[in-house]
């Protein structure tokens, strides 16, 4: 029984956003739960030598066109951000603080927070590197934004993001989104269907 | 009415091979014909700064695993070649000589030749940079292999490959396979289904 999809994403990743909007419905249909893993691709790209997609000639033009096209196919809002890419360090730390929180009420808000941050960036045109934006998102979900901002400045939460990224790299993650199901990795928004077929068929 | 899928591929590309095995059935279902465009990604990578996928840390491991996995999903033979990647210059020139030939009987053998070359490399473990292998493939299809080897040494055929690659780059092609349907580009074996939905729905 597969019952867990490890979902690795970078808040600066358009395909991460699109997959994030769809992953829970697919997981539910597949009898799986989603475990959220915010990471920073900047650290990964130091190892792989990759550059942000949109900075590459030819590939960049296609990517920007495809972000919108893939969003339209799934009736998702998409506005390519004016500031792109970004390093969403504070938002990533905040997500981990929620996910790993000792308070179950806060833990339960993790998915809503992740969706709200992603939508703020890719749909509402907000600057999610700005602490006041993160605080506003938290506030809208009845999360104590002062406590959140204090928490993400602590060494423990800073370390948790570093460790999260190291573990992702150890697991072979090199792009966003990456879904890992029972050690089987699937990279890319365009692999969600293949992942679904893999789960329902038991693999091939 | 869309009636033409421009199919760009590099003979050294595993995903090009997998898509090549599937494109005609999809085209037939979609009421389209396939136009074959052999290219050399080496020339494209000089512009995009990309490296061969398998030479990239983390990404390479995933890619090699995924080539076989994606082949198995579609019941296709796949043996990762011992010599990889390669620059399949002669095979690409031969394909263009067939495709653009004044003899309709030779033109009609283009698709069979492309499939046979791809299978020689990715299924039979043959060295398709070797002229004797290309000649043998040609012979197996009742193509005059001596005429073919003479033709691909001519300046006209050499130029045709250079021009083909330049035109591909002008059309925005940066990877293999790329399918272009009515100016709409789809990159990757894993986008065949999306391309199919695009054609059948008239786009979105």
Question: What this model shows, in words?
Answer:
- Chains A, B: Its EC number is 5.99.1.4.
- Chains A, B: Residues 5-197 form the DSBA-like thioredoxin domain.
- Chains A, B: One of its GO terms (biological process) is naphthalene catabolic process.
- Chains A, B: One of its GO terms (molecular function) is 2-hydroxychromene-2-carboxylate isomerase activity.
- Chains A, B: It holds the Pfam family DSBA.
- 2 copies of one chain form a homodimer.
- Chain A has 204 residues and is α+β, with helices and mostly antiparallel strands.
- Chain A has one domain (4-201): Glutaredoxin (3-Layer(aba) Sandwich), CATH 3.40.30.10.
- The first copy, chain A, is built from 10 helices and 4 strands; from the N terminus they run βαβααααααααββα.
- Chain A has a 4-stranded mixed beta sheet, with helices on both faces.
- In chain A, helix 4 (89-99) packs across helix 9 (155-170) and helix 7 (131-140) crosses helix 8 (145-151).
- The first copy, chain A, is globular.
- The two termini of chain A are 15 Å apart.
- The A-B interface holds A 44, 47-51, 56-59, 61-62, 65-66, 69-70, 72-73, 169, 172-175, 185, 187-188, 190-191, 193-194, 197, 204 and B 44, 47-51, 56-59, 61-62, 65-66, 69-70, 72-73, 169, 172-175, 185, 187-188, 190-191, 193-194, 197, 204.
Oligomer: homodimer
Give the ordered list of helices and strands of chain A: EHEHHHHHHHHEEH
CATH class of chain A: Alpha Beta
Largest interface: A-B, 32 and 32 residues
Please compute the radius of gyration of chain A using only Cα atoms.
16 Å
Structural class of chain A: alpha+beta
| CATH fold descriptor of chain A | Glutaredoxin
Global mean pLDDT of chain A: 96
How are the strands of the biggest sheet of chain A laid out side by side? 2-1-3-4
Given the structure, what is the number of helices of chain A? 10
Considering DSSP H and I runs of 4 or more, what fraction of the residues of chain A is helical?
A: 40-55%
How far apart the termini of chain A lie comes to: 15 Å
CATH architecture identity of chain A? 3-Layer(aba) Sandwich
Poorly predicted regions of chain A are none
The major pleated sheet of chain A works out as: 4 strands, mixed
Q: Which band does the percent of strand residues of chain A land in?
A: 5-15%
Inertia-based shape of chain A: globular
Overall number of strands of chain A: 4
